[in-house]
Amino acid sequence: MNFGYLIFLITSAATYGIFALGLNLQWGFAGLINFGHVAFMTLGAYATTLLSLRGLPIPLAVLVGMGLAMALGLLIGTSTLRLREDYLAIVTIGVSELIRLIANNEEWLTQGTFGVQSFPWPMDFNPTLLSRIVFVIWLTVLTIYAESILIKSLLKQWKEGKKIQGKSYQPRKPLALLIWGIITTALILTAYVPGVVSLYNYSGKAGLMLLALTLLALTYAGLEFWVHSPWGRILKAIREDEEIPRALGKNVFWYKLQAFMGGGAIAGLAGALFAWQLTSIYPSNFDTLLTFNAWIIVVLGGAGSNAGTVLGTIIFWAYDSLTRFLLPQIAFLDQSQAGALRVMVIGLILMVLMVWRPQGILGKKEELTLGR
Q: Which residues cross the membrane (predicted)?
């Protein structure tokens, strides 16, 4: 059985998960509004592909791409982070469009509208039987890790309650969380089976899927470590009220800049995966829609929650793939109408979510940054 499309979806979900985790670091934990997040992905994608074409080893090319994305974050941050948040949002939109126009017009550097093609990409080899078995075992470990994150996060949400007028904490109603848990577990298992088959009957795309999932797990684990460290607690304090950590002698500007640069580097890593999956990249691949898809994921899963971002990614891509096939089956809808309806429905879902649960599925209401 050919599971090619499912492998494509899993790789896309992992790439978007990394991309959205970078945005969650900037907005969910530091409160920095970034509407041009795709600019960092563009730098990562072009730097990785162009440098690898010139003979630089792929890992070094990826690191250079992440470094350039960090440098862009430094450039934007030093000029805007001391200003009001809306200035940062405006500047990031402008910078993302500027990066896209440079990629489109500077043919000597980016090959312009002809795109970058036939570049080296990882995992393109013929593994032995033992290697394929190891790949399957590693995918199983990643699946168990993902399921444990989900269960732990949902149980944490269930145990947390609301303290009103001195009353004790009451557990939340578990029905909605149970439904989300069942849906997400089913989606994870649906992805696991074709992943195992594709890795055993190895192809480069299956190897790229495993690499993307591994990088997603490493990014998630690294962010979880940092946001629960003293650095992360200071970042949250800055998000809530930056005057308090400033009064305690903390360099608020420097912490914001670190978060902005870190989120950019993570987006640069996602750009490398995005390029490898497409196998050829063009400036038109990096439009504003990528940024707002990441925003949808973070809002859906819960700002300030890395587990929520991963959960939001799974749900978003499940919705995207299912409606892509189901809606055109409706007789009175043509392809363009079905595409418009998909966007309209996800907008409606987000509006309902903002009313019913504005903090997202795994977010905390007291940590909302919208409207601050």
A: 6-25, 32-52, 58-75, 129-155, 175-200, 206-227, 253-274, 294-319, 339-356
Over 50: is that where the pLDDT of 110 sits? yes
Mean pLDDT of 224-246: 89
| H-assigned helices in the chain | 4-23, 38-53, 58-80, 85-105, 107-110, 129-159, 174-200, 204-227, 230-240, 243-247, 252-278, 288-301, 306-326, 335-356
Q: Are 142 and 189 in contact (CB under 8 A)?
A: no
Residue 96 in contact with residue 43, Cβ under 8 Å?
A: no
Cα 38 to chain centroid, rounded: 11
Domain boundary assignment for the chain:
4-160+169-367
Q: Among 22, 51, 4, 17, which Cα is nearest to 217's?
A: 17
- How far are the Cα atoms of 241, 307, 330 from residue 139, in angstroms, in the given order? 42, 19, 37
Coil, strand or helix: which one is 281?
strand
The CATH architecture annotation of domain 4-160+169-367 reads Orthogonal Bundle (1.10)
- Contact call for residues 159 and 128 (beta carbons, < 8 A): no
* Cβ count near 112 (within 10 Å): 16
Does residue 349 have a pLDDT over 80? no
CA distance 185 to 265: 30
In whole angstroms, give the CA distance from residue 87 to residue 3: 45
Q: What percent of the chain has pLDDT over 90?
A: 48
Instruction: Say which residue, 240 or 295, is predicted with more confidence.
Output: 295
Average pLDDT over residues 4-13: 90
- Encoded tokens for 133: 């078995």
Q: Which two tokens stand for residue 189?
A: 């298992």
| Interatomic CA distance for residues 260 and 268, integer angstroms | 12
| CA–CA separation, 81 and 66 (whole Å) | 21
Question: Phi-psi region for residue 112, left (φ > 0), alpha (ψ -120 to 50) or beta?
Answer: left
Q: pTM to 2 decimals?
A: 0.91
CA 16 from centroid of its chain's CA atoms: 4
**Residue 175 CB contacts under 8 Å (≥ 6 apart), including other chains:** none
